[in-house]
Amino acid sequence: MARPKAGEKTPLSRQRILDAALCIVDRDGLEALSMRKIGAELQVEAMSLYRYVAKKEAVLDGIVELLLQELELPALPPDQWEEYLYQVAYEFRQMLQRHPAVLPIVATRPVNTAGSLAPMEHLLSTLRKAGFAPLEAVYTVNSLVGFVIGHAFLDFGTLQGVEPGTSDLKNLALEDFPAVKEMATALEARRSEDEFEYGLRRLLAGTRLMQKTK
């Protein structure tokens, strides 16, 4: 493919539009994303974008595609499915940490593009080869994804215009809440990484138990 000559603009493409959109969300937040803003980022008229993306919703689906393509899924045999899912969960979490502003998109947009299907294919085919029934494989993947996204919202997700809160139990009257009072120190001392590990291990242990007893 011929490179643009000096002084020439790089040709517009779907890939450039999606890269610009993700850059805007990472830098300015999801509420800043618009076709006009993408056009300004690329120094083109917003109307020229519609030749490559039908509407803003297509851009959102494309952002999901870009994020899923960042994932480096482990190359483990199907009989190591538990370790496989463990590594997938951490890889997914790390991707979300790199792009915290996209959490609402990932949480609400289904996989709607062919470019997004490779990770799903990898996950489902691994579980099928491991002996999971089709519906079990789907439920397992969705449970894992939901756990990672939910924990990510708790740890580093933000709502625009809303400052993250901090726990301040020690300054509350807790006489009527004995269990909370007993564990106030533990509640305020939680470490997100430890909590994520705790929940993930138990999610996988429960899945392993169900697979053994079916």
From TrEMBL:
Domain spans labelled HTH tetR-type: 11-71
GO molecular function: DNA-binding transcription factor activity; transcription cis-regulatory region binding
PROSITE patterns: HTH_TETR_2 (PS50977)
Leader sequence residues: none
Pfam families: TetR_C_1, TetR_N
Lineage: superkingdom: Bacteria
Claim: Isomerase is one of the keywords in the record: no
Keywords, in A-Z order: DNA-binding, Repressor, Transcription, Transcription regulation
Protein name, UniProt field: TetR family transcriptional regulator
Species in which this protein is naturally found: Thermosporothrix hazakensis
